[in-house]
Amino acid sequence: MDLRTTRNIGIMAHIDAGKTTTTERILYYSGKTYRIGEVDDGEATMDWMDQEQERGITIQSAATTTYWRDHQINIIDTPGHVDFTAEVERSLRVLDGAVAVFSAVDGVEPQSETVWHQADRYHVPRLAFVNKMDRLGSDFDAVLEDMRKKLEAKPIAINYPLGSEGGFEGVVDLVTMEELRFPEDGHEVLRSPVSPERLEEARRRREALIDALSEHSDEITNLYLEGAEVPAGLIRRELRAACIAQRLVPTLAGASRRNIGVQPLIDAVVDFLPAPDEVPHAKAWNPKKEEEVDIPCSSKGMALGLVFKIQNDREAGPLCYVRMYSGAIKNASVIYDISKKKRERVTRLLRMHANKSEPLDQVEAGDIAVIVGMKNPQTGDTVGTEGWQVLLEKMHFPEPVISVAIEPKSLSEREKLKETLEILAREDPTFTSAENEETGQLIIRGMGELHLDVLVTRMIREFKVAARVGNPQVTYRESITKTVEHTQRFEKVLAGKENAAGIKVRIEPLERGSGNRYTKALRNHQVPDEIYEAIERGFTNAFGSGIQFGYPAVDVGITLVDIDYDELRASSFAFEACANMAFDEGARSAGPVMLEPIMKVDITSPKEFVGEVMSLVSQRGGLIHGSDSKAAVDVVHVEAPLAAMFGFTTSLRSVSQGRAAFSMEFSHFEPKKN
Known about the structure:
27% of the residues lie in helices and 34% in strands. It has 674 residues and is of the alpha+beta class. The chain is globular, with a radius of gyration of 27 Å.
């Protein structure tokens, strides 16, 4: 495999910007599919789950491989709906580049902002594709301005639309100064010189492109100052460098549904997005040496890959999507799950095309494939060899904020339900389940009502589990407001042996949103590692069971200050129990407080209903942070407690005659107002 001719890309956007339609066209024109699947007809290749076809949205990120101009392009189609943010997050973690799709009518929408900032966090170079140029109200330049304002990005047009709305017929390529038109099926691209009446605008826009590039290229600056022609090859080379360095975002126009502008987009993926060895080296953590190490992308190194997604197959078991960062994994070989410290056998290696597959002999650094045969994989596991046990950087997942009680319709279904919940939790790290110790109820938690609705529907249809589901409930959190020091003793006789442990800890509140932290202020070399591991385990488990009300504890810092260790009476069990008790008792005296999830809500409403929408939000205790005015609608930005948002859809429809819509995502936790 040649790294230089490989591209690992994702396609990301707000729900309904045409992301899946664009992916379908890319597959069609690169010869991977022989007919175009339409989202609106429920036949998109990449949306292969029943629910995706029914709802017309992408839920799981599907992976596929296609070829263009002798380049291998691995594409991951990610969901646009905010409830499936974990799918987007894990896809971005393993990509080298991305295509951001924007609607030419709506511009930068709320979820586009979220995904863009997620991509910023992983330093992913991007192209932008302004889709739906054939729609009423489309405005290419307004989208570019929106990107500058809302995303603080530096988009630069490398082509621009020929006409707009109903008169949209193609694009003008500013690199080669040609007009490109796409006949009915769009397979053939008709190129012609820029017509005289468009020449002035084309020159002005090309000058803007060269001007933007001259900031980053001395060669272009010199040619520009001399008044010499800047060759297309030089523009492409410098634009590639600026895109990979994330200084510019090459932007293209098109209308995927009408097959206009897709081939220039695939060309841009090959021309401007990086190969796996052109991005900064992946980082890994060496737990033995307690240091960070660089992982050069080379098939000659030792094997190291990241399981970034798990999909359950009824016959084959877990399908583990793995991105290789170093070395190679061969089919039918033994690999080592470094995160779990377990050997696993690779029974099959597959290259995926949505939900179809082809067998592979091996997967090398820089490539993406599926491993079949791992017994207990989890999203985020690092796989490789026993001789090089380093852990690739973990993915960050948001906390679930909504919960629902679920119970089997009969006792015989209980085990089946528990197995299904385990499978779904392995697939999706933002979905968790636990038994309520007081009521014995099974509680499932997720990112939003749609997220849980999709998962429950999967349980009933796909896994054939007969279950009853309660109403959605808010998942609160607990935290503390004071710093305390606490000493804890534990003594118990078990099976005739005395077990004793003693620790002193400092428990303190951390900044909101920073998560929990456990640190050791001391290191006694007389105390074995397994005792320290047991203490850490005790605290980690205690965080999950809460302080007063059983909700998970967040933003709590625990420092182990002192340890009372007696070799004859010490045991891992005793220290784990001691840590658990220390947290329970210490946190109760540290000013415990209950936190509720606050959601960031963006409501899109026709102008005539904005007053009613704002008053509805105020009645529910929401805070209005302002609004943006667009051609036909206003977007109102709101913060509201999640508890106030249940049933909001129905109320919003009734005050806006069904014409307003909203998107909602978790923002932060704050103390609950009584």
